[in-house]
Design a protein that fits this description.
Blueprint: H1 3-26, E1 31-34, E2 39-42, E3 46-57, E4 62-65, H2 80-92, E5 101-103, H3 109-119, E6 124-130, E7 133-139, H4 153-166, H5 171-181, E8 185-189, E9 192-196, E10 202-207, E11 213-219, H6 227-235
Antiparallel strand pairs: 1-2, 2-3, 3-4, 3-7, 4-5, 6-7, 8-9, 9-10, 10-11
Helix pairs in contact: 1-3, 1-5
């Protein structure tokens, strides 16, 4: 696995989660974008700040970083995310994050956008198609996207299992990174991972010898009675037994 794929494992499930939140928010609304102003609109009622990170060409199957796109003449303030990713690529020695243009061999623009979304801690991204390719924009607005996020253990299980049905990743690495994103603590003992949320929900995952997920489930605990209700039960007279 390459360093870029390691970054994908770290950020992909969280990025996928955010994309589902965005889909839930925008629904069937049409979209329009003004890249030079750093804006993307959905319908007549939603407008988000956006950063242009790169474009995928359907003609030669290449990725072009927005900071290297001389023809677009985009202002610096909408290229800050792309520039940040380039600096990260230089610091970590990852060629794909610092090379102006390269061929997409075993991944696509969505792969690159999921990595950049994670690196930049964006709220989500959007693929804006045009004739001959698509631009990928990071959406930087928490008004509705984060408000729709679900931190329950069952949601984590559902999101993760859905993700690995669509994307190739290191299951153990990807799940551990996703749990950190969701604020879960976890312990690993051999092939078993046990995780708990700040609100006390928990899940258990098992992996095979190759690190692939073999089983994952949310642990449903019975509801706890409140302190007041427990006191009340002690004070109420017991129901007389049938003699």
């Amino acid at each position: 696995m390459t360093p870029l794929h390691d970054l994908f494992d770290t950020h992909a499930v969280a990025s996928y989660d955010k994309q589902l939140c965005l889909a839930d928010v925008v629904g069937e609304r049409s979209w329009s974008a003004d890249p030079r102003k750093g804006l993307i609109r959905f319908g007549s009622d939603l407008e988000f700040a956006a950063q242009v990170v790169g474009t995928q060409s359907d003609i030669d199957n290449t990725w072009l970083w927005a900071w290297a796109n001389q023809q677009s003449a985009l202002p610096p303030d909408v290229l800050m995310a792309a520039e940040h990713v380039r600096r990260v690529g230089c610091d970590l020695g990852i060629p794909e994050l610092q090379t102006p243009k390269f061929e997409l061999v075993d991944f696509d623009g969505h792969f690159m956008a999921m990595v950049t979304s994670g690196i930049c801690q964006a709220d989500c991204y959007y693929r804006a198609p045009y004739e001959g390719g698509a631009a990928f924009l990071l959406v930087q607005d928490a008004k509705v996207v984060r408000a729709r996020a679900d931190f329950s253990a069952q949601s984590v299980v559902n999101r993760f299992t859905d993700f690995i049905c669509h994307w190739d990743a290191n299951h153990r690495h990807a799940l551990e990174a996703y749990l950190r994103y969701k604020g879960y603590s976890f312990v690993v003992a051999g092939s078993v991972l046990r995780a708990s949320s700040p609100k006390g929900q928990s899940l258990t995952a098992r992996f095979d010898d190759l690190g692939r997920l073999s089983r994952i489930e949310a642990v449903i605990s019975p509801p706890r009675q409140s302190f007041a209700r427990r006191c009340l039960r002690r004070l109420l007279p017991r129901k007389p037994s049938d003699a």
